Amino acid sequence: MGRMNKENDKDNVLRRDGNITEETDRKLQYLSRLTEQLQYRPVRQKIYREYEDHIDDETEYRISTGMTKEEAVEAAVEQMGDPVETGKALDQIHRPEKVLLPWLGVLFVLGLGMALVYYIQRDMQGQLWSLVSAAYPGRIHINRIDLFLCIIIFTAVTYFSYTKYQKFSVWAGLVLMITPVWYFMHRTGMGENICQILDDAVPRILGGEKGWIARRYYLLYVPIFGLMISYWKGKPHQLGKSLLAMALPLVLSFDPAVTDDELGSWGNFTFWTIALYLVFVFVMAVQLEIISLPKRRTTWIAGITFVLAKGIYMLYDFAVVCHAQWSVYYHHTGWNIMFTFFSEKRRQEYSTLWKTLLGEDSGVPLLLFHVQIMQGIKWIGTSDVLTQKLAQDQASADQVYLYITYGDLNTLMAYVGILPVVLVLGALTAFTVWLVRRAWRQSNRTGRLLGTSIGFVILFRIFYATAQAFSLTPGNHYLGLIPVFGGIGTEDYSGIAETLALYGMLISIYRYRNVS
Prior knowledge:
By secondary structure, this protein is mainly α. The chain has helices at residues 3-17, 22-36, 44-64, 69-79, 83-93, 100-123, 125-132, 144-158, 169-188, 192-206, 221-231, 238-253, 256-260, 269-287, 295-321, 326-332, 344-358, 364-367, 369-372, 384-391, 397-405, 409-416, 418-440, 445-469, 494-511. The longest helix has 27 residues, at 295-321.
């Protein structure tokens, strides 16, 4: 038990040797009985030190008023109150919160996602089998082993104090930086044999036909970045280290090939979203005085820098990649897909553009699949258009597999109706805000920083996925319904494990907010 154990051992030796004074013995007896009432052992040392300092300060004050040392210690100890009652009161404050309710809340959302994906796949089984063919039969189901591993990860993170992660945050950040390097090696063909060996090893370790794509865990860098900033507080070169820790993963995750590809989506979406997340963490660290910089000025500089960087990127995209042609840029950046859900004219223009680009009509229905299945959408119940589209052989195997197995927001709305999905999203949003508010109310600045940062990531993804479902965003990035839902029916459970780890961190902050 750290210092307290050492102090007790020393006190026992002193008693045997007869060198301990009566007043010291009185103080030690009080502290011993006080800390015995605390059920959460890690907090005993903290309380022991605090009350020892209080008694010593009070003793010095009373000696300065003319009391003897023995009288001063006696009076100081009595002023602290009854050790049993005081210890029980402290135990009610300084103990981990019960997390059964929020823990079950996350698992309920996960179970609801499993149920929806299962019933969609079951009801569309005939159409799926005819469209998806024999290439995907092993993937059209929910993998219980992978889900169980995700829940194990979530539970482990929940019951481990978030402050303990600080010691390993720098190493964890360096490990996560390998993931974009891995992706770069895949994309360029460099080290292809090594990448293939590692990719094959992951599903073999986890078992089953499905595998986890280990190069996708970039969202975990958000809380790790916050932990690194907090860990460096008060240490030399904190600002420089923090900026380096922000810049390095961004450099590694930037994909020049996406920028130069004239048929690409809204360029480097992963890069810009993680840049937004990390800038938010940095600004919040300044607001919480974890980083000593002017609050208002830093916020303005960070915001302007982010907007200018995005603007310069878009200008480069327009001038160099799209050769200063507005029509090419309009398509390249994905603006052409916006508002297609609300406007038949926009859908016709979008289809005409792609017919011109592809030189044929066969691929055009796929591009509006996510909009078409929501036509005739109901408040409650399945859209007739969804069933008709699947019954007709108008969609490729990849397209049906993507929308049905991923549990995309459009598919879920078309399957169960708008109202159930709105209720689920509203409940998840309220639940996330509730956890973030609990994190913000604690005194530990690290907990406040992590809670707000993780909450920002989750709420941003919910907001963006909702906007994307109604074609209010450029490009199409397949964020899925919500982080917990996306990927339940696929071969890749990386996204679920990643998001459950984030929720586990939020609940850990909630659990240990009084004892950290």
